[in-house]
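Hello again, I could really use a second opinion on something today. Take your time with it, there's no hurry, and the full record follows here:

___
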Amino acid sequence: MGLASWLFAAAYDAMIKAVEEAGLAAHRQRLLAHAAGRVIEIGAGTGANLQLYGPVVTDLVLCEPAPQMAKRLEKKMPTLPRPARISPDAAEDLHEEGGSFDVAVSTLVLCTVRDQRRALSELHRVLRPGGRLLFLEHVRATDPGLARWQDRLNFINRRVLQGCNCNRDTVSAIAAAGFEVTSLLHDQMKKAPPFVRPLVIGTAVRR
């Protein structure tokens, strides 16, 4: 498991490079333009979002529980123009004060968390009332035929991509966690395998 995690972290940026260049990076940029105030990001990974946070972000907490990913994230921290810190917290167990953040960010993370319901409950807890969850996630297909293929291939996807699930209905889970989804865009992760292409980009408000 240790070696597999190390190899995955080492290869991650190169592995997703074509997908980022085919449109994912542009989606990240548009989404994170709405981040302001105190921001918490779960599953910050190798730091794909770091340079996309604007000057209106006053404080930034980057949660990354995988040590192999956190080491790569830490190397990019000196280039940040604002206060930021790395936390080893998993999304399901955030050691942050309730109601203390204006914005939470999840990009390609809610597919992988072990307990999606608990992770969303924690995000709801740490956001202030009216705070926003900005999300970009690959999800279960709306096409029944593709969804069945996602179910069939999910066990392979989980093994290869360190626990990533390709068939989660994440938008419904966000709504069930006490958020109001206020904007939602459906797209495709171009250059990715077809069974992981369905993509959602959106904003949800903590009720």
About this structure: The radius of gyration is 16 Å.
